[in-house]
Design a protein that fits this description.
two-stranded parallel ribbon; three-stranded antiparallel β-sheet; 43% helix; Rossmann fold; globular; 5 strands; alpha+beta
Length: 156
């Protein structure tokens, strides 16, 4: 299913965010890309300590007018104006699972799992990059949005 979408979108390129999330998914995606004649140019890993990631999840706020308006109480660049959206002034809420530390810890256990989880998937692509199959970019996710963007663009 993913390959079908990528083949139709590949004229303009494509970006996957949050997928693959496991080593098995990474391997299957790679195999499907190879069989479908699709090229993987870049894999980008944003390095972030677990505690910082947790705070960012818990700090997310959703705008009642537009969920695409970025608001986070822990990130200065997108900090809301008090308890209203910094973009439009709409009311803000938080997802219940973003406030559940146990749920966040479970998500992070999967993400930071180096044997079967998301980090295992990242390491799979890192090994392919070492063989010249793609370019693997590591970014420090603790910087400002602008500095991370600049670093990424410089490496692309």
């Amino acid at each position: 299913m993913v390959l079908d979408v990528l083949q139709n979108a590949s004229k303009n390129g494509w970006l996957l965010d949050g997928f693959p999330r496991s080593l098995v998914q990474a391997e299957k995606l790679w195999d499907a890309l190879q069989k479908g004649g699709e090229k993987l140019d870049f894999v980008i890993e944003i390095l972030l300590p677990r505690s910082v990631a947790k705070n960012r999840i818990m700090g997310r706020r959703l705008c009642a007018n537009d969920n695409n308006h970025p608001n986070n109480i822990f990130i200065d660049a997108i900090k809301p104006n008090g308890d209203v959206c910094r973009v439009c002034g709409g009311a803000l809420t938080a997802r219940a699972d973003d406030q559940d530390e146990g749920a966040i810890d479970k998500r992070h256990d999967i993400y930071y799992d180096e044997k079967t989880g998301t980090m295992a998937a990242a390491y799979f692509y890192k090994a392919l990059a070492a063989k010249g199959a793609c370019k693997y970019i590591e970014l420090n996710g603790e910087g400002s949005i602008d500095s991370i963007k600049k670093t990424l663009l410089d490496q692309l």
